[in-house]
Amino acid sequence: MEGSTIIFYLLAALTLISAILAVSTRQIFRAAIFLLFSLIGIAGLYFWMQYQFIAAVQIVVYVGGITVLIIFSIFLTQQAGEKMPKQKIGRQIFSVLAVFCGFALVMLQVSQYNFSSIAAIPVAPSVENIGSGMVGINEGGFALPFEVVSMLLLAALIGCIVIAMRSPEEPVNKQKEEILIEAEIDVIV
Amino acid sequence: MLQPGLNHILFISTALFFIGVYGFFTRRNLVTILMSVELVLNSVNLNFIAFNKYVWAGKLDGLFFTIFVIAIAAAEAAVAIAIIINLYRSHHSIDVNKAEEMKF
Fold it and tell me: A103 vs B20: CB contact, 8 Å cut-off?
């Protein structure tokens, strides 16, 4: 057994076990931390597949941005230490059955199909190739989606500020709200 | 054990997808529902990268799709949290069962 195989199985175990704990624990702050570990496990899988750029983007944006934003929102909207109410057992059983049946169906179909790799000269996912592809305007360039995503981020930024803005005549709890809005702007930018 | 290949990574991404769906069905708290949606989006990203590496090694389309999905998921999470904060101000709770009245 090679080292890379052991590392793959460790990363897979970290990702899946953290994900299961994130959706089933009753304390919300622990759910956020388990989500963080799951996202780090996925970044580790990207490193294992030798897509280092995407792994770095995953850590910076997902782990360092979105998870921190979720933790901020937990602190702003409720007590982080209280336990969430226990779910109805009927709903949990139904959900487990439905999810298990869906998973079994998809895995049966996928495992029977023989994915053969398309014979072509492999293009390395290096930063040069990613950069020239992202701003390329020729066939296979992604300049147009790049610009459209920039406009989408601008719209999301303005939308967040408008939605979360407190109207002026309400009693002011401005410190927390402004900290959160600045955190959102940092995530988007 | 076998050398890990495409099928192993597809197993992980399918499992992550359905774990996220379980969380979406079961949770009553809006923030934890958002966390489950993030798990689903990550499973899709893993799928794109796996197919890019093992099947379509001659192009980088899967990688660019993943970059755009990450960017759009970040924007969506920020807008969702802004909505959650707005909802908390009027209802003082982020239980989905409490946000049930429409305006008219």
Answer: no
Calpha distance A127→B63 (Å, rounded): 12
Look up tokens 């190739």; give the residue: A129
Give A127-155 pLDDT, tens digit per residue: 988 998 888 888 778 999 999 999 999 99
Do residue B11 and residue A20 have CB atoms under 8 angstroms apart? Answer: no
CB contact burial A24-33 (16+ within 10 A = b; e otherwise): bbeebeebbb
Task: Give the Cα separation of A36 and A29 in Å (integer).
Answer: 11
- Identify the three-state secondary structure at position B95: strand
- Note the ipTM here: 0.91
Contacts of A49 (CB under 8 A, 6+ apart): B9, B49, B50, B53
Domain boundaries, chain B: 6-94
Rounded CA-CA distance A132/A170 in Å is: 50
* pTM of the full structure: 0.87
Select from B2, B4, B23, B3 the least CA-distant residue to B12: B4
Q: Tell me the average confidence (pLDDT) per consecutive run of 10 residues in chain B, 104 residues long.
A: 84 96 91 95 96 90 94 94 88 74 62
**Class at the top of the CATH hierarchy for domain B6-94:** mainly alpha
For residue B35, what is the enclosing H or E element? Answer: helix B30-54
Q: Are B24 and A27 in contact (CB under 8 A)?
A: no
* Cβ-contact B72, A152 below 8 angstroms: yes
Query: Could you say which of B35, B58, B64 has the minimum Cβ distance to residue A35?
Result: B35
Asked if A8 has any chain B CB less than 8 Å from its own CB, the reply is yes
